[in-house]
Specification:
The complex is a heterodimer of chains A (115) and B (114).
Chain A lengths: L3 E4 L2 E5 L4 E7 L6 E7 L6 E7 L4 E4 L2 E6 L4 E6 L8 E7 L11 E2 L3 E6 L1
Parallel strand pairs in A: 2-11
Antiparallel strand pairs in A: 1-3, 3-8, 4-5, 4-9, 6-7, 7-8, 9-10, 9-11
Chain B lengths: L3 E4 L2 E4 L5 E7 L5 E7 L5 E9 L2 E4 L6 E3 L9 E3 L8 E8 L9 E2 L3 E5 L1
Parallel strand pairs in B: 2-11
Antiparallel strand pairs in B: 1-3, 3-8, 4-5, 4-9, 5-6, 7-8, 9-10, 9-11
Classes of the chains: A mainly beta (115), B mainly beta (114).
Chain lengths: 115, 114
């Protein structure tokens, strides 16, 4: 079945630096790749997603890139701020015709942004 | 105020007891899910339901049971057959189970087996 590997498991950066989190997936039929952010003690929330028909998507300071050939996608956060500190989860799914679109999550990356 | 509500937030259980976690949503979503979150393992799917009166096993369904009698509600029972039930449980919903859209999560329930 589908497997999603996420690296690194922890990431520490200085405020203002960039942060990059990478994920690889195993099922070449996967076509939907969301990223969720979970702040300490709070629920995961979707921050950005990308579908397989595009290679990059940006939303202010965050961007996601997708390389379908290599089967990996990455989250890029620029100009990091302390409030970016959280656990970030990548996920992948495919949408079989009429079937359930099951998300497989990576293990998570704990990002710490130091002032 | 629309959203997804889980209760209780914290729960303690003795070994051998069943316990039921509540999940209610007022988002009019068709699909609902239960995930288990353990440190370093991400979110693993326990059960999901695409429509009322229908549900399917996820990747780690053993020792759990669910029901979906109403669109708004998807309770999870952790039975005594679950070998390692201490975990953080997250309920989620989405507009549809087949569209690949956003999951809306509850705030979670932390179960501790004593």
């Amino acid at each position: 079945g589908e497997n999603v590997e996420q690296h690194p498991s922890t990431l520490s950066v200085q405020e203002g630096d960039s942060a990059v989190i990478k994920c690889t997936y195993s099922d070449s039929a996967s076509n939907y790749f969301p990223w969720y952010k979970q702040e300490l003690g709070k629920r995961p929330q979707l921050i950005i997603d990308i579908r397989s028909n595009v290679g990059e998507k940006k939303d202010q300071r965050i961007a996601v890139t997708l390389n379908k050939t290599a089967k990996h996608f990455s989250l890029h956060i620029t100009e990091t701020q302390p409030e970016d500190s959280a656990v970030y989860f990548c996920a992948a799914s495919k949408n079989p015709l009429g079937g359930y679109n099951k998300l497989i999550f990576g293990a998570g990356t704990r990002l710490a942004v130091h002032p | 105020d629309g959203g997804i509500t889980q209760s209780p937030k914290y729960l303690f259980r003795k070994e051998g007891q069943n316990v039921t976690l509540s999940c209610e949503q007022n988002l009019n979503h068709d699909a609902m899910y239960w995930y288990r979150q353990d440190p370093g393992q991400g979110l693993r799917l326990i059960y999901y339901s695409q429509i009322v009166n229908d549900f399917q096993k996820g990747d780690i369904a053993e020792g759990y049971s669910v029901s979906r009698e109403k669109k708004e509600s998807f309770p999870l029972t952790v039975t005594s057959a679950q070998k390692n039930p201490t975990a953080f449980y997250l309920c989620a919903s989405s507009i549809s189970g087949t569209s690949g859209g956003e999951l809306f999560f509850g705030e979670g329930s932390r179960l501790t087996v004593l």
